[in-house]
TrEMBL record:
Organism encoding this protein: Patulibacter medicamentivorans
MF terms (GO), sorted A to Z: UDP-glucose 4-epimerase activity
Limits of the NAD-dependent epimerase/dehydratase domain: 4-230
EC number: 5.1.3.2
InterPro entries for the chain: Epimerase_deHydtase (IPR001509), NAD(P)-bd_dom_sf (IPR036291)
Protein known as: UDP-glucose 4-epimerase
UniProt KW keywords: Isomerase
Presence of the UniProt keyword Isomerase in the record: yes
Record has Isomerase as a keyword: yes
Family: Belongs to the NAD(P)-dependent epimerase/dehydratase family.
Entry superkingdom: Bacteria
Pfam families the record matches: Epimerase
Taxonomic classification: Bacteria, Bacillati, Actinomycetota, Thermoleophilia, Solirubrobacterales
Length: 316
């Protein structure tokens, strides 16, 4: 691979993927709605545009060997508030990415999906071959639609895909609405940490730099037309997240509020395929990742002590 387009390359995960591509000797190109705040103008080839603009996407893909498609409405709360917009970005946007790749002759589309796709399948443990049931949340529905478009374009038009089902990403550059940033801000402000339900929902978190390395690993030839779970090796409950933040930042209260409809209850997500086929595994423990986030937060948000709304227990 010589040049790879990263949709959503200005964002939380995408900006780290851009860095990992460059470190691997691959030239990254960003396609996003805004200039990356983490890459000064002129340092990374950047195309400003929207997923709804097929012509702009096709132009951005010219000369690229692959596309890492990360752009999406990732906040499940926003999806629930505006499902039509979420469908246009997540589902139709993915269709446009695949069509643009076909038109531009791009060899591979690596699609960022989510372990939320397993929520419709009742089991204690899931892997990449587990059947996907009908989704309970609109966000999940949009991501499954994107997966289906990937497999359809491979079958009909020969556009290679790699589907990466992300665990719950966290770490430096995270969006403020995610669970760890919310808890950290509240704890620093001395506010109670609010949890939806009992907090016994389990999550497979994955530190963002580990995840970005997994995205780059997904470009390997053996990943063609394959699905991989990119998750951490620990099962962490929402309550344990709050307890880790409390332990690191001080004695704050933990308050329980009513649960949220459509929430992913959690299952053990098998991660062995990525390790065996791609040589990838997450290496950062949840606690160490929170410490890294805290160090970054203190450097970049010094003086901020504003409490935030109830934390999104999906963490997605």
């Amino acid at each position: 691979m010589k040049k790879v387009l990263v949709t959503g390359g200005s964002g939380f995960i995408g900006s780290h993927v851009v860095d990992k591509l460059a470190a691997a000797g691959v030239e990254p190109r960003i396609f996003d709605m805004v200039q990356s705040p983490f890459h000064p103008e002129g340092t990374v080839d950047t195309y400003i545009g929207e997923l709804g603009d097929l012509e702009a996407l096709t132009a951005a893909m010219q000369g690229c060997d692959a596309v890492l498609h990360l752009a999406a409405v990732a906040d499940v709360g926003q999806v629930a508030l505006d499902p039509v917009f979420a469908e246009q970005v997540n589902s139709k946007g993915t269709l446009n990415v695949l069509q643009a790749a076909r038109d531009a002759g791009v060899g591979r589309v690596v699609y960022a999906s989510t372990i939320w796709v397993y929520d419709g399948f009742s089991a204690d443990q899931v892997d990449e071959d587990s059947p996907l049931g009908l989704p309970k949340h609109l966000y999940t529905a949009t991501k499954i639609a994107g997966e289906m478009y990937c497999t359809s374009y491979a079958e009909l038009y020969g556009v290679e895909y790699t589907i990466l089902r992300f665990g719950i990403p966290y770490g430096t550059r995270a969006r403020p609405a995610a669970v760890v940033p919310q808890f950290v801000k509240k704890a620093l402000a001395g506010e109670p940490l609010t949890i939806a339900g009992k907090g016994d929902q389990t999550r497979r978190f994955v530190y963002v730099e580990d995840l970005a390395e997994g995205c780059v690993a997904g470009l390997q030839p053996q990943a063609a037309n394959r699905v991989f779970n990119l998750v951490g090796t620990e099962e962490t409950t929402i309550l344990e997240i709050a307890e880790v933040v409390r332990d690191l930042l001080g004695d704050v209260d933990i308050v329980h509020v009513p649960g949220r409809p459509g929430d992913f209850k959690g299952a053990v997500v098998d991660h062995r395929r990525a390790e065996q086929e791609l040589g990838w595994t997450a290496t950062t423990s949840f606690r160490d990742g929170v410490v890294k986030y805290l160090d970054w937060h203190r450097e970049t948000h010094a003086g901020e002590r504003t409490a935030e709304p109830v934390a999104d227990p999906s963490g997605d």
